[in-house]
Amino acid sequence: MREENDSAARRLALDTVTSRRAMLCGLAGAGALGALSACSGCGRAALDLDPERPLAAVSDVPVGGGLVVDDEVVVVQPVEGEFAAFDARCTHENGIVQAPDSEGLMVCPRHYSKFDIEGSVVSGPADSGLKAVEVSVADGEVFPAA
Ligand code: FES
């Protein structure tokens, strides 16, 4: 009976060590992921947009709202006939912001920063506005500026 108890105690100790190792490895992995995500907001490459390729048809961009194109650019129409665009990557850690809601707010789904329809930060954690993309309108379409 005593040998069975000793054996059970050894197995328990071994399981505990194994579990602690697994947990420590998990924490190390989580730490590495944390470091990666913390770095994801730096070193942002500029968008490479083709000025010959329209971002959107004017008729597809709602007045007071906008749309996200290819998870790259948000095209907005704050007032009828006036268009603007922004890099859709959140300035916090590159989440792709959503198209403006009924209040003209663009929300990043990662940590819920909010930007107004002019790209300015309304609430963080982002601490700077969306990067503007110059656009022009021709033939009923919105183009990135050359
Ligand atoms: S990536 Fe963190 S709020 Fe957008």
From TrEMBL:
Gene3D superfamilies, per database record: Rieske [2Fe-2S] iron-sulphur domain (2.102.10.10)
Domain of life of the native organism: Bacteria
CDD domains to which the protein is assigned, alphabetical: Rieske
Taxonomic source organism: Salininema proteolyticum
Keywords: 2Fe-2S, Iron, Iron-sulfur, Metal-binding
PROSITE patterns named in the record: RIESKE, TAT
Protein name stated in the entry: Ubiquinol-cytochrome c reductase iron-sulfur subunit
Coiled-coil annotated residue ranges, if any: none
Record-annotated Rieske domain positions: 53-144
